[in-house]
Design brief:
The structure holds 2 protein chains of 2 kinds. Helix content of chain A is 29%, strand content 19%. Chain A is α/β, with parallel strands linked by helices. Chain A has 4 domains: 25-99, OB fold (Dihydrolipoamide Acetyltransferase, E2P); 122-280, Rossmann fold (3-Layer(aba) Sandwich); 286-360, Ubiquitin-like (UB roll); 373-444, no CATH class. Chain A has a 6-stranded mixed sheet, sandwiched between helices. A 4-stranded antiparallel sheet of chain A has the order 2-8-7-4, with no helix packed on it. In chain A, α1 (122-131) packs across α4, α4 packs across α7 (268-280) and α11 packs across α14 (423-444). The longest helix of chain A is centred in the C-terminal third of the chain and has 22 residues, at 423-444. By secondary structure, chain B is α+β, with helices and mostly antiparallel strands. Chain B has a two-stranded antiparallel ribbon with strand order 1-4. In chain B, strands 2-3 form a two-stranded antiparallel ribbon. In chain B, strands 5-8 form a two-stranded antiparallel ribbon. Classes of the chains: A alpha/beta, B alpha+beta. The A-B interface holds A 85, 88-91, 336-337, 339-340, 361-362, 422, 425-426, 428-429, 432 and B 116-118, 120-122, 124, 126-127, 130-133, 139, 208.
Chain lengths: 445, 296
């Protein structure tokens, strides 16, 4: 069985909700839509206070090439355009909508009927994806229409579907594979048509045998789509690691793109969103979120409208346990701590994790003992101890020379460190600074 | 014996010849150095910090002597009197602007600003600001990890363990501006040093609307604008829900301090006002009056 070669760790899977069918969460009382739910320029609101909107009405337009539009997931009245603290921990502008009823845009096909074929051309499909505001649903939130138009000088030969879900606790993609298998296969065909490629590989980790079996049976009659079980290892869901695991090719260090080795990677969530956008004319207004944690009485997978406050999800899952130490948006490895439970569900929210205080608190930091466990764990082949020290001493040149921009912030180094040094914190700081220096330098030249 | 004498003589003669050569070379190829450079160098801190933009203190001293004016030459580590002496040695007129000092514009101490969560990442403000904004409800105020303390080369900033806020030692501060650059929240400002080191400033940079700011911190500026009305010298402006006092226009009248309902305007190093003095006297007097009957 394939996997990527260097580094990686094996965290405890803790997939508490793997067998829980996806339930539909009721519509919230008020939905909040932050304007920057994606990488790139924030969206620009195209509604005003007091406007009436329906489910699927576009409320913000892309703010540039690298941006995505945002649609209302509820019907009601725009209450205000104000700021909200989102998962990034920063106060960002957002559109607040007070919910009244549940009226949908008439153009959206709400039936359960499977649409197999579409007459849309390649350009029309890309336009459709762009209009639906679809971004990478794995967590990075990269605008999908940008990713589906790789620079012309690269020849793409493989589409890789990321169904790895290597983060502990999360099961949103797993449930999607089991419940929407047909739709996903149609979505894959749509993407193949857009890219002009005839080979797609669905990468699934071996801890999801039911999903592997189901996808195998569904794809047995379809030529060009193959299912590849992968050995369990974190961070296999990262784009570069997945490309290596599936094709054996290594993506060169930044600024090279995965397209430079002939691959485009899409998350299964994104594939499903593309199916809905192209076949059902439905913009990205809901997603599956795993609400989990050992203290929760009813951990579950929920189909949630965008903009629903996290508190609604937690209430549905049995309420916040008293000993909760940290509330995390995403998984325990790469997720971001939420400041409070008022933060809204965004396009990249794959899970809400409640960690008990004893597990969440960081332990006392000690000195580096030069054991090189972090070097061994780093899937990018970097030297995290060195990068962290360079960052501590504000030696940005040293950090840049040692390939800090290749870091994918997976957190393997920090999780293996026996001295519990906050390596990732330091690396993130240095990456931020070095990124700024590189941008300034490029702007000058 | 003869061997020893020969050796001593031979070495002595060689030494004599070589010293003559050295003496000749020294007097023939003598480099004339301005003695003022040495004098200025003695006054400079010799930290070679590069804060003046030149490679080290020696280069700065040389530049002082060689240039015609002192324009653009300022050692950020030297106090006013030292700069005056340097200019005098170099023989230039010097126009030093108003003396300045770093001011921390946040009063969100542990008492004023409740802690809502615990930030347990690496102790560096830059990281806390990037990750999740520290451990209080304020997204603009001091993060308390002491980035400003670690960049201060003169030991002028210390964290007050009681308030969790940085405190500037005005005697040591040279207004070099390193702390201003280091603070990710931009709360430190270089302001004029007035007579007797008196300072009035809005000790808050919270741009949130009034109720949100007040919820996060007891002494947050809520942008009510009372101080703007109270100021007779048009020194106070209100932008993004925060008041700002222009130190060039402020006449230190302290009217705004009394007006501020949030007590977010701070007046430093002023003598207590007559009314306040009276109050304190009264307070002091009370126990005495109480004690008198007991003693009787």
């Amino acid at each position: 069985m394939n996997t990527f070669k260097i580094g990686g760790v094996h965290p405890e899977p803790c997939k508490l909700t793997a067998d829980r069918k996806t339930e539909i969460l009721p519509v919230p009382k008020q939905a909040v839509f932050p304007l920057s739910q994606h990488i790139g320029a924030p969206a620009v609101p195209c509604v005003q206070k007091g406007d009436q909107v329906l489910v699927g009405t576009r409320i913000a337009e892309p703010g540039g090439y690298m941006s995505a539009s945002i649609h209302s997931s509820v019907s009601g009245k725009v209450a205000k355009i104000d700021t909200v603290v989102d998962a990034s921990g920063q106060r960002k502008p957002a559109i607040f909508i007070d919910v009244e009823g549940d009226e949908w845009e008439p153009s959206i096909d709400r039936s359960d009927k499977l649409v197999l074929q579409s007459t849309k051309s390649r350009e029309e499909i890309i336009e459709c994806i762009k209009n639906a505001g679809i971004v990478g649903m794995g967590g990075a939130c990269f605008p999908t229409h940008v990713k589906l138009c790789p620079p012309k000088d690269f020849s793409i030969d493989t589409l890789i579907i990321n169904a790895v879900e290597c983060e502990p606790y999360l099961t949103a993609d797993h449930r999607l594979l089991l419940e929407q298998a047909d739709q996903i296969i149609i979505g894959i065909k749509v993407i193949l048509k857009v890219l002009g490629v005839d080979r797609a590989v669905i990468g699934i980790e071996e801890n999801k045998p039911d999903a592997i079996a189901l996808m195998r049976s569904k794809t047995s009659m379809v030529s060009g789509i193959e299912v590849m079980p992968l050995k369990m290892k974190y961070p296999q869901g990262s784009e570069k690691q997945l490309i290596e695991a599936v094709t054996g090719r290594q993506v060169p260090p930044p600024p090279a793109l995965p397209a430079s080795v002939g691959c485009v990677v899409q998350n299964v969530g994104t594939v499903f969103a593309i199916y809905e956008a192209v076949m059902k004319n439905k913009p990205l207004i809901d997603r599956i979120v795993t609400v989990t944690g050992k203290g929760l009485s009813n951990p579950c997978n929920l189909k949630v409208r965008m903009g629903t406050p996290v508190s609604d999800l937690i209430e549905y899952a049995g309420g916040m346990p008293e000993d909760t130490g940290k509330l995390i948006s995403g998984g325990p490895m790469m997720g971001r701590p939420l400041l409070d439970d008022t933060a809204p569900v965004c396009k990249g929210t794959s899970g809400v994790l409640l960690l008990p205080e004893a597990e969440a608190a960081r332990k006392e930091e000690r000195n580096c003992i030069r054991c090189a466990k972090c070097v061994q764990a780093c899937p990018m082949g970097l030297e995290p101890y060195l990068l962290a020290t360079a960052s501590e001493q504000s030696d940005w040149e040293c950090a840049e020379e040692n390939w800090i921009m290749s870091c994918i912030e997976c957190g393997c180094c920090q999780s293996t460190c026996p001295s519990r040094r906050p390596l990732l914190d330091w690396v993130r700081l240095a990456k931020n600074r070095v990124g700024g220096i590189i941008r300034a330098r490029n702007a000058k030249n | 014996m003869l061997v020893i004498l020969t050796a001593v003589l031979a070495l002595g003669v060689t030494a004599l010849v070589l010293s003559l050569v050295l003496y000749f070379v020294k007097s023939r190829f003598k480099v004339e150095e301005d003695p003022r450079i040495g004098q200025i160098l003695e006054l400079l801190p010799s930290a070679n910090c590069g804060g003046c933009g030149l490679p080290g203190c020696a280069a700065f001293a040389e530049a002082c002597v060689k240039s015609d004016t002192m324009e653009g030459l300022k050692c950020s580590a030297c106090r006013r009197d030292v700069m005056n002496r340097i200019a005098a040695i170099a023989g230039h007129e010097i126009e030093l602007g108003v003396e300045k000092v770093a001011v921390v514009r946040c009063n969100g101490s542990c008492q004023n600003r409740p802690t809502l969560r615990s930030y347990d990442g690496a102790q560096r403000c830059a990281i806390a600001a990037m990750m999740n904004g520290g451990d209080t409800g304020c997204f603009y105020g001091c993060l308390g990890c002491g980035d400003c303390v670690s960049v201060c080369k003169f030991g002028a900033i210390k964290m007050d363990p009681e308030t969790g806020l940085p405190v500037v030692d005005a005697d040591k501060c040279t207004s070099c501006g390193n702390c201003v650059k280091a603070c990710p929240r931009g709360i430190i400002e270089i302001r004029n040093r007035n007579k007797m080191d008196r300072r009035i400033y809005v000790s808050c940079v919270n741009k949130d609307k009034g109720p949100v700011a007040r919820k996060a911190c007891d002494v947050a500026c809520i942008g009510c604008g009372k101080c703007v009305k109270a100021c007779q010298f048009d020194a106070i402006t209100l932008a993004d829900n925060v008041a700002y006092i222009d130190f060039n226009k402020c006449r230190l009248c302290r009217k705004c301090v009394d007006e501020c309902p949030q007590h977010s305007i701070v007046a430093l190093n002023f003598p207590p006002r007559p009314s306040q003095v009276a109050e304190t006297v009264e307070v002091d007097a009370q126990p005495v009056t109480e004690q008198t009957p007991v003693s009787e």
